[in-house]
Amino acid sequence: MLQYAEQLLKDYFGYDSFRMVQKQVIENVLNGSDTLCVMPTGGGKSLCYQIPALALDGLTIVVSPLISLMKDQVDMLRSNGIPADFINSSLTFQEVNEVMNHVYSQRTKLLYIAPERLENDSFCQDLKQLKVSLIAIDEAHCISQWGHDFRPSYRSIQKIFSLWPHKPTVIALTATATPNVREDICHLLQIDSESVFISGFNRENLSFKVLVGENKDQYIKKYISNNPQEAGIIYAATRKSVESIHAMLLQKGITAAKYHGGMFEEDRNYEQNRFLNDEAQVMVATNAFGMGINKTNVRFVLHYQMPRNIESYYQEAGRAGRDGVESECILLYSSSDEQTHRFLIDQSQDPTRIPIELQKLQQMIDYCHTENCLQSYMVNYFGEQEIQDCGKCGNCADERPKQDVTEDAQKVLSCVVRMGQNYGKTLTSQVLAGARNKKVEAFQHLTTYGILKHLSAKAVANFIDFLISERLLLVKAGQYPTIYVSPEGKEVLLGKRRVLRRTIVEKAVVVNQNDPLFEQLRIKRKQISELEGVPPFVVFSDKTLRDMCEKMPKNEEEFLEVSGVGQNKLERYGEQFITIIKEFV
Predict the structure, then answer these.
(1) Residue 427's closest CA among 453, 460, 455, 468?
(2) N or C: which end of the chain has fewer CB within 10 A?
(3) Which key words tag this protein in UniProt (predicted)?
(4) Separation between Cα atoms, residue 212 and residue 465, nearest integer Å
(5) Dihedral of the alpha carbons of 409, 410, 416, 420, in degrees to the nearest 10
(6) DSSP code, position 67
(7) What is the distance between the alpha carbons of residues 310 and 141, in angstroms, rounded to a whole number?
(8) Please, which residues bridge with residue 330 across strands?
């Protein structure tokens, strides 16, 4: 059966072999075992259910959270000659009936549906009449209350398992699942621990950076000017920020699209399609954009503000480099980001989630202040064994020697102790900096008052954040979080441990050079995509175009050797691209 699956991979998708975890997942599913697949964005999760869908008799139902995700997936499958359909709120009643007729007549192998559709009893009765061999649950972290994006509608998935005399095989897939979330998914879907496959959270083609204290607008304009041919996403926390950044880029002459929840759906779709079709170089958006967007040639993701948690950041940053090509993820941090998120969390409609969200926020803040490897930090967060330093993130690439700041650390830790370990970062930093206001008056008698007065209160607060990221100080979560000294911090106080810290991280902008042949192939891809009414990456990904440049295929046999080229795409596009390559030579 696995050999047949590999043949399907080559025939329909143009790849010679599965990645290791893909192979294990697909084999497990084909053996009829319910499976959890945790794989980072760009890791090839979709193939883990699409190949079994082709190999098995009957229909595969894919539960997917967003309309854009469904459309992209269906476009990609149809482009590869695979019959697929979707049902969601964007379709009329008549269009839904047409799709169901395809399903009844077995002209559809994969049917994408929204989880809310499963709350419709009439629809479930329709499903009951079908031969369903596989149920794929995409973005499966949405089913867990411990997940960063819990959605109650996902709980409806469980009730459909009893529709058929023999329950279809189930595969749950997600890119962001901590150990708690994985355990919850397995419990809810009754998946054995032996059927959990984790491919690794390390994205080797991505380089991560955190920049503190930047002039954000100037940095963005300079960065995009230095990367004029590359597509990218800029994430901002508020609609107002999106509008401001978008206007700034347009004024600079940069083709930019925008996307946020305050826009009409028609306008959002228009802007999204401009970006997908390479008509806009940059998408400026809130976190409302991107889930399920399968644009493979995003070369950079910039965050104008810090996201609320690591899961969100990993998912949003992971939209860069889905084709495996080197890409950058840069977070522009300022201390005000923390206050914005604390306010939004406090306004949460579900007070039971506030402690969880505050803990996740603190872990995100720690990421912004750690001087250790950023890739390693994220991998460790998701419960994977810690990797070696990546060697290319902003911290690993910083070659400046570290300075001994043990004495300043002892002063901070001592002040926290003398204040009773019952106060927050802001007040503590004001006491250390010798501020003069009513809140600080009660602490002016302390020997640590003003002991760091050569620094501003803001600089001291940043230093405290660094000590928290080093686990020398810990945070007691709550509406008014307080800081206290950890066991490791006590070792510093007693002189048993040194503390080393770098100065402000260097600012660097990478200029990407493009191959002239690559540009010609990209132009041809754009022309084809406009004729067919699909985004360019549906025709070929950047990775496939770059492989063409490297292999320079001169005939059909050689063109089939290009990564991402299957028989269907050879027949549809091979002659046009081979002609360009021959002319270039």
Answers:
(1) 460
(2) C
(3) ATP-binding, DNA damage, DNA recombination, DNA repair, DNA-binding, Helicase, Hydrolase, Isomerase, Metal-binding, Nucleotide-binding, Zinc
(4) 12
(5) 160
(6) H
(7) 14
(8) 209, 302
Which pair of structure tokens corresponds to residue 236?
A: 């901002």
- 321: which 2 tokens? 């480099």
